[in-house]
Amino acid sequence: MARIIVVTSGKGGVGKTTTSAAISMGLAKKGHKTVVIDFDVGLRNLDLIMGCERRVVYDIINVINGEATLHQALIKDKNCNLLSILPASQTRNKDALTQEGIGKILEELAKEFKYIVCDSPAGIEKGAHLAMYFADDAFIVTNPEVSSVRDSDRILGLLASKSRRAEQNAEPIKEYLLLSRYSQERVRSKEMLSLDDVQEILSLDLLGVIPESKSVLLASNSGIPVILDEKSDAGQAYADIVARYLGEKKPHRFIDDKKGFFRKLFGGK
Amino acid sequence: MTINARSKSHSPPAVEFKSSTFSVPVLSLTNNDLVIIEKLLDEKIKLAPEFFKHSPIVVDLSDVNKKELFINFGDLVACIRKSGLFVIGVRGGNEQQNLEAITLGIPVNTSQSNPETKIDYTKSSTRTPLQVDDELTFHDSNNVIITKPIRSGQRIYSHGDLIVLAQVGAGAEILAEGNIHVYGSLRGRALAGVQGNTEARIFCLNLQAELISIAGNYKISDDIQGAIANAPIQIYLQKNTLVIKSLV
Asked: Tell me, what's the ipTM?
């Protein structure tokens, strides 16, 4: 059975596409046939992060409209042959997406792939709605700040009421929290909410904390998912997240202050 | 009642049975004279013609029967229909009347003719022979229990009490005709006694609400600030003022 994962947040700029690229690559690297779909029609970015922007011929809207077959539109990743990308259309808008069309595409993909990762656009309108509608699991990407947390709360409400599982009264979507752009230093200076604050508001299972890291920007610019940068903290955080999602037990990292040891030593607070 | 019954949009099968509550006026009779009844009905309806137009009504015969006054149920229904009301149920009827009701396609409500209401009618000797009673609600289980967090943007309504075993997020709205219990943090808006029940109360473990209201008397977050935080509290109405009080 294929598992459909939606990466969503409500708010923009929190790291949905970075996360989608990283976890789909991570799942493929673990030997699972994975496809990642960009739902951000009109503002596509996933192809850039995945480094396949020069190879886009057909896109998801062409498939929905019957102008191309699914296989013509799928792009094989250059780093991992178990990973495919279904890009969004840049020249259209979200109205071109239809529930029926998406349903058919997912059904077809489910025959071939183990994991289907849906990269949701920001907002709660059509694109975001259709990205989450068919999901089995939801990765809620949240930044440690109040507006992001509230938007995530809103998305959680929609997942519980406006998804296929909710409408069919099936087992609810499994929700996971991914706290991204986390900086212990800024938490300490009260510029950011702490992990505890966020968990208290959202009361959600934590899948992982991704530290604020230069490596994310570098990876995005060079079109290589950050998870492939095994030396980077963000890359390791995503590797942990994929492992935890697949059932491995891994202690949470990047929560403690790097300077904690010295802090303890000198008794500072 | 299931969780989220109101916030979910189902794509249901052709037929679905759902439990719902309605308020229906009750016409309680104390006299068997159809001429008087008709006259009084017309007078009453003239006071608020729009309100009574095609209004469903339940007929209460317990008083008439207690006084052992004979009334022909078929004639009574015809008389009520003439004034533009629809009889949708009967209570307190005897065997004969109930049988007539069934043949006329009118449901018989036996459960409602409980001793409590009867006591009420014996007391009311000074009442006019005919009156539209206080609204009768068909109670089933009106309370709603929610076990999962209520998220921002969600709206939950209960016809009775609303019991939430989790938190209520900022931007969520919970409404109840009765009391509200939140066994978690209350960050959203909570409105108890929304149909005017001033006795309704709100209970929660941690008050951080955006708005609290009982029977239309409300306080917003700014007014609440400085109230007891991080402790179990109750909110009730005292002389039209909301009182926030610690439970411990």
From this structure: 0.75
